[in-house]
Backbone:
């Protein structure tokens, strides 16, 4: 699954995590302002960023772009020396480009959040003081539109690239399995493993990894802001006064939902795996029946389909209460932010701009902590596919 696309997967991923961690540590312990040594303006790293597109080509951003490219180049050269791989350009540079796009879109979210406060405060001031220049509204709307258009363009370009990235990974797996087909073709559902599961595995792993990396980056970007904004919400509903209230509220609510859905959906991965097994057995018998009249007899097909029916009914039952609980939680989640802010709103200590800004930051941080909640169904499907491909590949170690 992985060695077909990545050089020495275990060491590759371990080294990638360590390299990313080292670069993050260096960046936040002096690297962020190290551009001054190379001619960047004095104090550029601490200068407030503009609320608009110009922030993305400010010295702070340009220095990050240079740092990212150099870090990726060093990593790529290291692996080209340690273990060359035919898919190395895609597995390293492709992964790096996806990582950069995730970071960039998180920064777009930060820019939009910075836009929220001043814009809605301006709206509130106009409403309470008899109006104001309409040009100010149009100018702020244009600023938002330009940021949003850049974001949408990057998202579409990234989606196009990711499609090719995933298909290259599928191609690598396909070639790997075809090269070992003489050993693998006797496995039940072998054709499905090569034709369908390879694409689904690459697609789901990419989606989950992107979501996880984005969740981590959102936390890195927005948690400091949430710590700062917590000073405006000293009291939580039902709890009372607490330091860093918004941070604790986001963590507590997200952990509650994560544990709840993990417990409720614990049976689903095994059922999904069994579902593919019984479907493959039924489909295989039908295929044999196309060429051999002695196969696919009614009694045999009835027995095989009965296994399909029983497993599907069990799946329907377990998904019914899982979906019910998850839907209840998400509906409550829509109101949780306002519920948390309700004591401060009722006390009249907040402005409209501050409310919108806090809700946006709080929502981003909460969504990051809820990674497992939003991805649980996808994780269930991935576990099922991984089990099938793992069993499929195990033949290579047991047969000569």
Residues:
């Amino acid at each position: 699954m992985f060695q077909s696309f990545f050089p020495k997967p275990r060491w590759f991923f371990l080294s990638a995590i360590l390299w990313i961690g080292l670069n993050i540590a260096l960046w936040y312990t002096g690297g962020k302002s190290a551009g001054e040594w190379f001619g960047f303006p004095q104090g550029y790293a601490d200068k407030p960023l503009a609320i608009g597109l110009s922030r993305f080509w400010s010295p702070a951003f340009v220095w990050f772009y240079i740092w990212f490219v150099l870090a990726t180049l060093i990593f790529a050269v290291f692996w080209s020396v340690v273990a060359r791989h035919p898919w190395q350009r895609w597995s390293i540079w492709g992964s790096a480009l996806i990582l950069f796009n995730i970071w960039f879109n998180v920064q777009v979210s930060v820019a939009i959040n910075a836009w929220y406060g001043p814009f809605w405060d301006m709206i509130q001031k106009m409403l309470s003081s008899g109006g104001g220049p309409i040009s100010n509204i149009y100018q702020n709307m244009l600023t938002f539109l330009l940021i949003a258009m850049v974001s949408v363009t990057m998202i579409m370009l990234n989606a196009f690239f990711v499609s090719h990235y995933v298909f290259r990974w599928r191609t690598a797996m396909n070639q790997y399995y075809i090269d070992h087909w003489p050993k693998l073709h006797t496995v039940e559902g072998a054709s499905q493993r090569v034709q369908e599961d390879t694409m689904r595995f690459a697609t789901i792993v990419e989606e989950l990894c992107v979501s996880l990396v984005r969740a981590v980056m959102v936390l890195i970007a927005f948690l400091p802001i949430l710590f700062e904004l917590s000073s405006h919400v000293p009291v939580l509903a039902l709890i009372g006064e607490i330091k860093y209230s918004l941070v604790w509220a986001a963590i507590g609510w997200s952990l509650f939902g994560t544990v709840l859905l993990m417990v409720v959906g614990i049976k689903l991965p095994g059922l999904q795996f069994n579902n593919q097994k019984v479907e493959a057995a039924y489909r295989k018998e039908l295929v044999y029946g196309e060429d051999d009249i002695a196969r696919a007899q009614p009694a045999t097909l009835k027995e095989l389909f009965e296994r399909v029916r029983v497993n599907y009914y069990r799946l329907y039952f377990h998904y019914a209460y899982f979906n019910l609980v998850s839907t209840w939680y998400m509906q409550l989640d829509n109101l949780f932010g306002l519920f948390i802010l309700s004591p401060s709103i009722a006390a009249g200590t907040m402005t409209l701009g501050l409310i919108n800004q806090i809700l946006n930051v709080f929502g981003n941080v909460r969504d990051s902590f809820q990674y497992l909640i939003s991805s649980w169904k996808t994780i269930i499907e991935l576990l099922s596919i991984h089990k099938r491909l793992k069993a499929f590949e195990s033949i290579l170690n047991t047969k000569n």
